[in-house]
Specification:
Largest sheet: 8 strands, antiparallel
CATH topology of the largest domain: Rossmann fold
CATH architecture of the largest domain: 3-Layer(aba) Sandwich
Shape: elongated
CATH class of the largest domain: Alpha Beta
Strand content: 25-35%
Distance between the termini: 53 Å
CATH superfamily of the largest domain: S-adenosyl-l-methionine hydroxide adenosyltransferase, N-terminal
Number of helices: 5
């Protein structure tokens, strides 16, 4: 039974939005088990939403349904999607928020949700999380076959700059995917693409960001002098720029979306 639902949004918890979505789900399926991954995704940030769900979903049981609503294009032409990826299901907008999942999972089937009789009526133009995505998730956990919600598509959206641009053997251009609560800057330089960062001998490198340079690779957050800015390989498998006892985002005065140039010596 796929009765576990995770919810990820940029709605915060101050307003009624998340509560209304949960109410819709429980009205359709009172047996649903709902867990919040985060409601503090940066407002309108599809990249932050994509990173957040990609880091959390692998740790949930098979057949978990993941509801992701980071939807700056709500009411526009973007499509509602139901994604079957590996052992999991995902429901949300076709704006690239599932980009990292598309890259990670080999078994992938993406459907354009068109079965409007499953929607909550009338459908608001500005709250599809409540009126479209939540009902679809609830009916899915009630055992409705995914094929009943819409036909497969192949032209789903991906984040254009999710991966770094490899310019040569010694240089790549990337970006900050997320500045987390602690001010750590999570880049899109993954160890899958740059395995030298997890080799026994640390590489000689330079990160250029915000007009400044980072040249040292540490192993843990507390390494180095107080206030020192350096890089580590974080638990997400990406290179992070951190500050011992402080926030790298403040120390460098940069945040999500900032361009980074990585150069190996």
């Amino acid at each position: 039974m796929r009765n576990i639902i995770t919810i990820t949004t940029d709605f915060g918890v101050r307003d009624h939005f998340v509560g209304a979505m949960k109410g819709v789900i429980l009205t359709i399926n009172p047996e649903a088990r709902m867990l919040d991954i985060s409601h503090d995704v940066a407002s309108y940030s599809v990249v932050d939403g994509a990173f957040t769900i990609a880091q959390a979903y692998p740790y949930f049981p098979s057949d978990t349904v993941h509801l992701v609503v980071v939807d700056p294009g709500v009411g526009g032409e973007r499509r509602p999607l139901l994604v079957q990826a590996g052992r999991h299901f995902f429901v949300g907008p076709d704006n690239g928020v599932f980009s990292f999942i598309y890259e990670r999972e080999e078994r992938l089937l993406v459907r354009h949700i068109t079965a409007e009789h499953y929607f909550l009526q009338p459908v608001s133009r500005t709250f599809h999380g409540r009126d479209i995505f939540s009902p679809i998730v609830a009916w899915l956990t009630k055992g409705i076959d995914p094929s009943h919600f819409g036909e497969p598509i192949s032209d789903y959206k991906r984040i254009a700059n999710a991966n770094p641009i490899i310019q040569s053997e010694k240089q790549a251009r990337g970006m900050v995917l997320k500045a987390d609560k602690f001010g750590n800057l999570i880049t899109n330089f993954s160890v899958a693409l740059f395995p030298q960062f997890v080799q026994p001998e640390a590489p000689v490198f330079r990160l250029e960001i915000g007009g400044q340079q980072v040249t040292r690779l540490g192993k843990i957050f507390s390494e180095g002098a107080p206030g020192e800015v350096f890089a580590i390989v974080g638990s997400s498998g990406y290179l992070e720029i951190v500050c011992n006892g402080g926030a790298a985002s403040r120390a460098l005065n940069v945040g999500s979306g900032e361009e980074i140039v990585l150069t190996f010596q």
